[in-house]
Each structure stands twice: as structure tokens, then as C-alpha cells.
Amino acid sequence: QVQLVESGGGLVQPGGSLRLSCAASGRTFRTYTVAWFRQSPGKERDFVSAINVNSGGTTYGSTVKGRFTISRDNAKNTVFLQMNSLKPEDTAVYYCAAGNTVILSNRANQGAYANWGQGTQVTVSS
């Protein structure tokens, strides 16, 4: 079991940037795949990005590819999501998730992740 705490959300203007953090505690991070999902009111939770903490291999959802970058700091047990060129449609609660049995083809499936954070609100508005 791993505990996850997100931070870094807030209000930003269109075109701006934010960096989200997902800090893990409880067990070693290296065996996990960590992902970001997001959910807007009235919509389903969507996949944003994932990273294999050991290899550094990444996956991105089509709506964020080229704008968002996921990375990790293994020494700090933390995964980051750098979000650039933000759009109003990026407004959502962003959740960090971790799983230690996630295969490459299943990274976008929220059911593959057993551990979830509480979420952090990102609002993109002028």
C-alpha cells in the first residue's frame, strides 16, 4: 500500500502553466507506475499521463500530448506533472494514482491503479 498526496493546483489564466506534485509514502516507489487522471463536473474521469517510476517510460493522453510533461524524482518519492499552454477545458480535479501491476497497454485504465490521492483542483479561467 502507498499513500499519495497531490499539491500544486490552483487558478491560472489560459496559456499559463502549473506544476502538480504527487508525493508518495508508505512503501518504495520504484516498483510502481504512477498516473494522473482528471475529472470535470458531470464527466467521467479521464486519463492524463503515466510514468513507470523505475524505467521512466511515459504515456500521454491525446488531449495533453505536447503540452504536459510527467516526470519523477525517485529520491523524493515524487511524481510531477508540468502543465503548459493550459486551456479552459483543462479545468478539472486532478488525481494521482499508483499501481504496481500496471502493464504498458493498461496504463490509461483507472482500474489498474489500487492507490489514489485526494485530488487537487485546477481551474483555467480569465
What's this model, at a glance?
With 126 residues, this protein is mainly β. It has no helices and 11 strands.
Please, could you describe this protein's structure?
The protein is mostly beta strands. It has no helices and eleven strands. Strands 2, 4, 5, 6, 9, 10 and 11 form a seven-stranded mixed β-sheet that branches. 34% of the residues are buried.
The low-confidence runs, each spanning 5 or more residues with pLDDT under 50, are none
What is the helix fraction of residues, given as a range?
Answer: under 10%
Rg of Cα set: 13 Å
- What's the helix count? 0
Beta fraction of the residues? over 45%
Secondary-structure element pattern, one letter each? EEEEEEEEEEE
Mean pLDDT: 95
Distance N to C terminus: 40 Å
Shape: globular
Q: Total number of β-strand segments?
A: 11
Helix and strand content put the structural class at mainly beta
Oligomer: single chain
What can be said about the biggest beta sheet?
A: 7 strands, mixed
